[in-house]
Amino acid sequence: MHIQFEASPIDKIAADALAVICFEADEIKSAEAPAVAPPSTPDPEIAAQSGWLAELRATGEFTGKLYELSILHRPEGLAAKRLIVVGGGKRDKFTTVEARRIGGTLVRAMKGKGTRTIALSLDGHDSPDLITAVVEGAALGAWEADKYKSDPKKNEAQIDSFTVALSTDTSGAISEAVRRGEIVAESQNFTRNLVNEPANKLTPGVLAEAAKQMATELGLEYEALDQDAMAKLGMGALLGVAQGSSNPPFLIVIKYRPALATSEDHLALVGKGVTFDTGGISIKPSDGMEKMKYDMAGAAAVLGAMKAIAQLKPAIPVTAYVPTVENMLNGNAQRPGDIVTSLAGKTIEVLNTDAEGRLILADAITYAIRNGATHIVDAATLTGAIGIALGHYNIGAFTNNQPFVDRFLAVSRIAGEKTWQMPMDEEYKDYLKSAFADLPNIGGRYGGSITAAWFLREFADPTPWVHLDIASTAWLDEPKPWLSKGPTGVAVRSFVQLATDWNRS
Ligand code: BES
Ligand code: MN
Ligand code: ZN
Fold this sequence. Notes:
Elements: E1 2-7, E2 17-22, H1 44-50, H2 52-59, E3 69-73, E4 82-87, H3 96-110, E5 117-121, H4 128-142, E6 161-166, H5 174-196, H6 204-217, E7 221-225, H7 227-233, H8 236-242, E8 250-256, E9 267-271, E10 273-277, H9 297-312, E11 318-327, E12 339-341, E13 347-349, H10 357-370, E14 375-380, H11 385-390, E15 395-399, H12 402-415, E16 419-421, H13 426-429, E17 439-440, H14 448-460, E18 465-469, E19 475-476, E20 486-487, H15 492-500
Parallel strand pairs: 1-6, 2-4, 2-5, 5-6, 9-11, 9-14, 10-11, 13-17, 14-18, 15-16
Antiparallel strand pairs: 3-4, 7-8, 8-11, 12-13, 15-18, 19-20
The structure holds ligand BES, manganese (II) ion and zinc ion.
């Protein structure tokens, strides 16, 4: 889908469908009216109150409720073939979150209806942030998890172009805002494409190749440590997980370096890249196991963020560390009770082979610190427990550094990714006791996402670190009007915002 900006009077926009946002009306405000009144009408406000909008409201066909759509064909006085009235909800509650979803809802609703070109008038909503959000929403809404569907109708149903329309380019910052939205959403869709790949198509080696291709195309430095290199370094925690699979592991490292760094800070993004999680010898129940192809969503989010960062060029150096393995079970698989030695030198008793994410992340975090990271954020589909705690609507955030997580929470709010800080009291650490090694890889029955975070913290301390548990937010089981079922690409936007806003917070 091609995305563009057009500055022309609304009646001149020749799209298959032209959309305008109208709010829930206690009374009809003038801002929404003039835009779509036939040009011959002298007073646009009167026209709207007595015309099509008033009629739509009177019949109850359109109330302005958020994401509600009414479609009018061959609207008088407009060049567009259809006029779509989109509900904006309550005018004073309208933010970038609603704007993003409106973009997605529009694109998804018009797919397969003979509409190939869509324009959305944003007169009265022309702040750069709002425009970026709408563009993101449209591009994210257009994405489908249909790569492996061979339906011939697929192409007919596509939307060719999405136009952000303003009667005048008031600020001059509009095309920049559109560009940012496109870059971020395309990167997020890149993440979703990776997550959507089944585990027979996307092994750790294939993930590393995809990362290499992305990095090379965008001029980022790429390197991957293979099994031998990791064995030489002593990454026993990561290698223990990988040893039950015929598909060898990698530690992918991608570097972005700004032309001119404005501080000594060095951000590391670490992503869990388990291309399939059977649970290992502590095998998972078969019901629902197919979803464990998304256990590399953290890795994919980090790679998607690097793709956007390479184009948006923030002032801070950013390095991605992506440990990638397949958690399988063969005659060589890791057993419960095995004790492994991590890169940091701490020994770990593997009480449950299904708690594998923290094992690979531990070595990756140590490696990031040894290579100069001053701040670390990791994203991982780490625990089922985070979904029990927070449901599907918030990323769980954990930290060893309150100011750093405060900054992270602020940027994720701007990026429109709900994130909730979880507790990290010292008491929880007592759940992690091993009789035979420095650490066990699981805590008890309670606070599962917190003990997982505490395990990671043992490797991150004292470097400022934020851990994101995205197990319940990286995959959508039921489609939304603005987003398809499947991978969400969560955490990409927060990562990008963190990097681009680094010096502003
Ligand atoms: N990949 C899973 C976590 C997960 C669960 C992700 C559901 C997405 C959806 C992780 O490796 C895992 O198996 N965690 C265990 C930890 C337990 C053994 C302490 C879990 O959550 O059950
Ligand atoms: Mn697991
Ligand atoms: Zn896992």
